[in-house]
Amino acid sequence: MKIGLLAALAYLLGSIPTSYLMGRLRGMDLREHGSGNLGGTNAYRVLGAAAGLVVVLVDIGKGLFPALAFPLWDGAAIPSLAILYGVMAITGHVWSVFVSFSGGKGVATAAGVMIALAPLTMLVALLVWLGMLLTTGIVSAASITAATVVPFVAFFTDAGAPTVGFCVALALFVWWTHRENMLRLSRGEEKRILGRRRSKANPGQEDGSA
């Protein structure tokens, strides 16, 4: 019973629409601006760097807190339940009950979960993400690449079978949520975070990652 309630609470925490609320503070609905995505990247592009940073940090916390704290409260003494709580938080972020089951792409919230489950793996993923971002200037390319290396890093750092399995599922999920970004990347149309390149098909198109 307690596990189910905590899982539901993890979903609700993940569902807190951080970027939507940040946009409302500025008098706008982010679903109608930029890429329309309720993630940190769109918040950064539309609302500015400070707002984008706040959104990303809160979204990371939405994954970190349930995965880290809830296993201490459920009374089950099953460490792998952290994965369940993390998955529920990510699900809430991507399909938020508070904004008609829309949301972001789950990268920041998943990063928070990974900090709780496998901090060393997350550190390597962060370095890969930063390296790709500095090289390409494209957030989606950095997110996809970092998610792809996560299962391999988790495996070689002996993160444990449940965590490695979660990392594989996470990588596939990030690829799925970024499927439109990958199409634009293949066409050379994905926008750089510093605005050096706009979409050929739609000059207003954002990459909408995170």
Percent of residues in helices comes to 55-70%
Element pattern in H and E: HHHHHHHHHH
User: In terms of quaternary structure, what is this?
Assistant: single chain
- Total strands: the figure is 0
pLDDT averaged over residues: 91
Q: Helix/strand-derived class?
A: mainly alpha
Radius of gyration: 17 Å
Tell me the number of helical segments per DSSP (H or I, 4 or more residues long).
10
Q: Report the biggest beta sheet as strand number plus sense, adding barrel if it closes.
A: none
Strand content: under 5%
Overall outline: globular
End-to-end CA span: 32 Å
Low-pLDDT residue spans: 197-206
Overview of the molecule:
The protein has 210 residues and is mainly α. Helices cover 68% and strands 0% of the residues. The protein has helices at residues 2-15, 18-25, 40-47, 49-73, 81-94, 107-117, 119-136, 139-156, 161-177, 179-187. Helix 4 (49-73) packs antiparallel against helix 5 and helix 4 (49-73) packs across helix 6. The longest helix is centred in the first third of the chain and has 25 residues, at 49-73. It is globular. Residues 197-206 have low confidence and may be disordered.
